[in-house]
Amino acid sequence: MTDATGSGTGRRILLEANVERPDIAAIVAQVVDACASRGIAVRMLESTSANVATGTGVEAVPDTPRAAEGCELVLVLGGDGTFLRACQYANAADVPVLGVNLGHIGFLAESEVASLNGVVEQIADRDYRVVERMTIDATVIHGDRVLDRGWALNEVSIEKLSRQGVLEASVEIDGRPVSDYGCDGMLVSTPTGSTAYAFSAGGPIVWPELDAILVVPNNAHALFARPMVVAPTSRVAVETSVRSGPSVVVLDGRREVEAPAGSRVEVVRGRRPVKWVRLDDSPFTDRLVTKFELPVTGWRGRSSGRPLP
Predict the structure, then answer these.
(1) Tens of pLDDT along 240-273?
(2) pLDDT value at position 8?
(3) CA 166, CA 163: separation in Å to the nearest integer?
(4) Measured between alpha carbons, how far is 12 from 194 in angstroms, rounded to an integer?
(5) For residue 58, what is the DSSP state?
(6) Cβ atoms within 10 Å of 154's Cβ, excluding its own
(7) Taking the complete model, does pTM exceed 0.85, yes or no?
(8) What's the number of CA atoms in the CB half-sphere (13 Å) around residue 279?
(9) What is the Cα 176 distance to its own chain's centre?
(10) Is 299 exposed, middle or buried (0-12, 13-18, 19+ CB in 10 A)?
(11) Which ranges constitute the DSSP H helices of 179-230?
(12) What is the end-to-end Cα distance of the chain in Å, rounded?
């Protein structure tokens, strides 16, 4: 397996953990001890460290975008929500992120907590590879004014601020109108996000090796309500109707931007992908079957490895 790059001295990782887990203190202590025995320093956010009794040997840093600077990678202990939060620090520092699942499904995690000691050993030996996952950049515009900008690994969701009525929205692809919708919301997703909110809204599952942008109407009251998969070079815009009232733009289910009625949200391929740690070469198909517990008892497979004539 290809080694990851990194210095042999002064090694450190940023550890981000789900502090709401009742057993998290013991798990964090296990990681800290395992890293210390292998010459790797552990850094944690002050907000996380304050909720976990880690003892000595842990560097606490302010919760800023620069938290992961100087680290080899960001190690995440938790579910997908914790992973998405940790990606903010990893992406800002341009370092890879590695998830260990403590949650329910943990689709974004690379390993389970039962294998935690082995994960630390692979980090110490640099026995991992780094792949890139596509992101999307979003710009929220009202009139001639840019209200906010942000990025997402999973999806950008445009939703009606009030739960009464539907969101009236128009979708534009590459400067041309596609359709008007009355819906609960519009989702613009990456392939990574295709197994998350977009999947729940009826979108297709897209293998992460494929670069594309998904446009998924959420509970649309329209004859044309099919999800669309467009080129990664496309510019997707969602314009909300003045009649709908204010909306909210949600990035990865975490960061929210309120947008007045008649706002426009433009989404393009992200300028910087997320660097993603892979610990093995298992295909995405296996992850899909395992995480979603898909039935495969009827599968027989090829009786021979020889190519078909």
Answers:
(1) 999 989 999 999 999 999 999 999 999 999 999 9
(2) 44
(3) 8
(4) 32
(5) E
(6) 29
(7) yes
(8) 20
(9) 29
(10) exposed
(11) 197-200
(12) 33
Number of helices (H), then strands (E), belonging to the chain: the values are: 6, 20
128-144: b or e for each residue (b if 16 or more CB lie within 10 Å)? Answer: bbbeebbbbbbbbbeee
Which helix (H) or strand (E) covers residue 122, if one does?
A: helix 116-124
Q: What domains, with CATH codes, occur in the chain?
A: 12-133+273-292 (3.40.50.10330), 136-269 (2.60.200.30)
- In the three-class reduction of DSSP (H, G, I as helix; E, B as strand; rest coil), residue 123 is classed as helix
Give which of 249, 238, 219, 152 is closest to 192, Cα–Cα. Answer: 152
Residue type at 260? P
Question: For 4, which DSSP code?
Answer: P
Which of 75, 99, 88, 79 lies closest to 15, judged by CA?
75
Q: Which of 3, 23, 63, 80 is catalytic?
A: 80
For 99-122, the pLDDT digits (tens) are 999 978 889 999 999 999 999 999
d(CA 268, CA 146): 15
Structure tokens at 59: 């560097």
What 3-state DSSP class applies to 246? coil
Would you call 94 a catalytic residue per the annotation?
A: no
Burial of 206 (0-12, 13-18, 19+ CB in 10 A): buried
